[in-house]
Structures are given as structure tokens and as C-alpha cells.
Amino acid sequence: MPWLVADGFIANYQDILNSLPLILVTSNRVKEMYVRDGINADIIEVLPVGCDTDAFMPYDKNDPKILSVRESLGISTDRLMLLPVLKGLECPRLKPEPARLAAGKSGSLAPV
User: Fold this and answer.
1) In a domain, 93, yes or no
2) Is 103 inside a domain boundary?
3) Which domain, by its residues, includes 29?
């Protein structure tokens, strides 16, 4: 909800925001702003934007591991395979649901 921070309206939504089980923010600075304006720090988790490009990088499409994953998921080699990465799964309020997405030739996302 970046517009809340940008426009300074966090305090106007205290009751609504404090009634939520979880609020994800993109930085400690944003969390500090929410807490400063009366939002319960216990329901705020920081989920930074970005990824470690040394750990997450494209693999050759003919790599045996990639071919094995494609085969097990039924994704043909002519389709782009994306790996959604989530941080914060150790948070008990986050209940991850497995999702597998692949981009078709048109570039649109479709469940696999």
C-alpha cells in the first residue's frame, strides 16, 4: 500500500490496518513509518523487493536438472519456466500455497 505512505494517510486507517492479521512492507523504513503512525509492529513483516542474482540466475535449458524439473512438471522446452521465490515462509502467519506458473509463447502467465 505505497499510497498510504506517500500521502501520509497511515494514521487515517489505523483501525482497519490494526485489524489485519498481517501487513507486508518492502523495507524497515516503511515498517518504522507504519509503527510511528500507530500500527501494531507485531503484525508487520518486512519482505524486501529483489533477489540475489548470484543465487538466482538463468540455467541452460538443456541442463539435466532443468530437463528433469520440466519433465516432472510437464512443462515443454518451448515454454518459459519461472520460479516464484518467497521470503518469510518461516513466519507462522504466512501459509504458502504451492503455485507453478509458466509463460506461454504469447508471454501471458498460465497455471501449469
Assistant:
1) no
2) no
3) 2-46
